Amino acid sequence: MAKSTAEITLRRLRQDGHIRDLVREVRLSHKQFIQPLFAVEGIKKREEIPGLSHTFRDTPDTLLKQIESDLKKGISKFLLFGVSAKKQLKYDFTANQIAAIKKRFGSDIWLAVDVCLCSSTTHGQCGILNPEGDHIENNATVSELAVQAQAFAEAGADCVAPSDMMDGRIATIRAAIPSRTVLMSYAAKFHSGFYGPFRVAADSAPKGKSKLTDRATYQIDPTHPTDALRSAERDAAEGADILMVKPGLPYLDILKELSQQIPLPWAVYQVSGEYAAIELMAREGLMDRKRAHLECWQAFVRAGASMIISYGARDAKEWIG
Ligand code: PBG
């Protein structure tokens, strides 16, 4: 017989740290974390990034030191953004960084590399602009992305991660890279206001002679969740190994639904604006930095993420234990 609700004492399982430990359903591990890194060409010293505390625009030298220090803190998976000084479709700077990192650290680290054109174009758009400057050419962009992905994979990247949101890029990139290279698709990437600090770090804000002032013609509209589902299903069918939802916190519903529907490993990106919001509040004494980040990361795992990309990754081991 069912007991009356008066006898159900939920606080019994909350009464001390031992029982709370035992009943926990969500467990985080620092092994789930991927740390973003920025390698910047043509700077003499590493630079801080406004809003992104503990994150730097690194020189080739300081980048290696940063990875060494992250490894000591138990973080061994990275997502590299290469920022070349020349705004041209040339990828040798980033490819050289990949080769140098893998030469130094080999299989001690797992290196994913972001694939996109926004840091390599004068206009900061994620693709190739038509001569009129009002449209991103899909197929020309996809061909160029495949060239970039191949250069990064051949330089030694363990994973390439296209973040551009063009149609058909997963199949084209899959065909261009070696079979051992993991393909992580930014599949459910939304047209978000939370990317601000990143665009300063990657020098990739839309600007210059393009008539497009934003990325609305290729990133997913926040009010169109079925577009995210179709994008993820399509990328899975085209051969992506890992799918991603981005940003994290404003799109937990998407993460939960898509991870239940599509049986691939799911990543979530706690993007620059989400991270910076917590950092700024913590600096003002309005929030505890560790508690706030842990709470967001737990929400990601609850919603179905098996891996988390976060600028706070390098604190994860110390915090999670
Ligand atoms: C490049 C790219 C962006 C991010 C990752 N890859 C920015 C954008 O789409 O404008 C955002 C990451 C972040 O905000 O932390 N296309």
Secondary-structure arrangement, i.e. CATH architecture: Alpha-Beta Barrel
Question: CATH-wise, what's the superfamily?
Answer: Aldolase class I
Based on DSSP secondary structure assignment, what is the total number of beta strands?
Answer: 12
Q: Distance between the terminal alpha carbons, to the nearest Å?
A: 42 Å
The average pLDDT score comes to 96
Bound small molecules, by name, code or SMILES, are: ligand PBG
Low-confidence stretches: none
Description:
The protein is an alpha/beta fold and 321 residues long. The chain has one domain: Alpha-Beta Barrel (TIM Barrel), CATH 3.20.20.70. It is 37% helix and 17% strand. The chain has 11 helices and 12 strands. It has helices at 17-23, 60-72, 92-105, 138-155, 169-176, 196-201, 225-237, 252-261, 272-283, 289-302, 316-320; strands at 33-40, 47-48, 56-58, 77-83, 110-115, 128-129, 136-137, 159-162, 182-189, 242-246, 266-270, 307-310. Strand 10, helix 8 (252-261) and strand 11 form a beta-alpha-beta unit. The longest helix has 18 residues, at 138-155. The structure holds ligand PBG. The site of ligand PBG has 12 residues, from helix 6.
Descriptive labels:
single chain, about 325 residues, alpha/beta, TIM Barrel
What's the SSE blueprint?
Blueprint: H1 17-23, E1 33-40, E2 47-48, E3 56-58, H2 60-72, E4 77-83, H3 92-105, E5 110-115, E6 128-129, E7 136-137, H4 138-155, E8 159-162, H5 169-176, E9 182-189, H6 196-201, H7 225-237, E10 242-246, H8 252-261, E11 266-270, H9 272-283, H10 289-302, E12 307-310, H11 316-320
Parallel strand pairs: 1-3, 1-4, 1-12, 4-5, 5-8, 8-9, 9-10, 10-11, 11-12
Antiparallel strand pairs: 2-3, 6-7
